[in-house]
């Protein structure tokens, strides 16, 4: 969600001269609006999965961010902005089957749509105020269960402000949400057993147990051949293979879809789920288990009960690693420091320009 909320908020901060406090308020508000809409459409277990959730909530979340950053004069203006944003929601999941790059365009389009909605809503153009819950509205179009509007209302009325961003998890690896746990296990295995797993020929089988959600999501259970880096970021098998082979999973390793060592490991993999994992998934957890069987009769087994989400210092550490391809360590550290001082900035858009 951050790629849409922060992108649109920063763009308007630069365009309209927002303060740091406004930008922070926008980010918190955007996460809140994205969380309430995501919970409303997915919380009942009935939803048209041909659409990509991130793209469906992105324009609404980002438009909500812009309203929070610069609160309009009246509720009708807020309503128009958010309703226009709902009208612009889209994003089809076909990319996951083909490795298409439109996944990134989904997020960019949502950010742009939010800015368009923000500007249109302020003009006073009439828009349906029942676009969410009304006949042929958003909830009906997505096949959401009848309590979708109720979940939306309940969140607004009962949740404390900031719940959306406070409950946000931060991924340990640059891959799909559903492959985080298994990739994290493989990274640990590389660190602890690198010498033993170095020779693919010594491995008989790699068995993975994951959640039913991971197996069902388009592109996740994909043993190859892969066609793009997007496929690599989705594939459970590739995430594990790359982590075992390289000891890291980032934008560099996710593009090595033709690596012979990784592909050799992938060919030895099988993926299943079980009843206990299904129960954990129903409680909001994402457990995973990897078992590696060797020709000498030995085996390595590692399991996690949920994704090892990153804490604050670990987020900064991963940021420094990921951005090192574009910024020097000195410039990256300067950007981190400016983010930490953002609340007191008088021109947030300018203070974050470090180039």
Description:
The protein has 355 residues and is α+β, with helices and mostly antiparallel strands. It folds into 3 domains: 1-168, 2-methylcitrate dehydratase PrpD, CATH 1.10.4100.10; 179-304, 2-methylcitrate dehydratase PrpD (60s Ribosomal Protein L30, Chain: A, 2-Layer Sandwich); 311-354, no CATH class. The chain has 18 helices and 4 strands. It has helices at 2-16, 20-42, 53-69, 75-87, 95-98, 102-121, 138-141, 148-158, 163-166, 180-197, 212-216, 229-234, 236-246, 260-266, 275-282, 312-323, 329-340, 348-351, and strands at residues 203-209, 269-272, 288-294, 299-304. Strands 2-1-3-4 form a 4-stranded mixed β-sheet, with helices on one face. α1 packs across α6 (102-121), α2 (20-42) runs antiparallel to α8 (148-158) and α3 (53-69) packs antiparallel against α4. The mean pLDDT is 92.
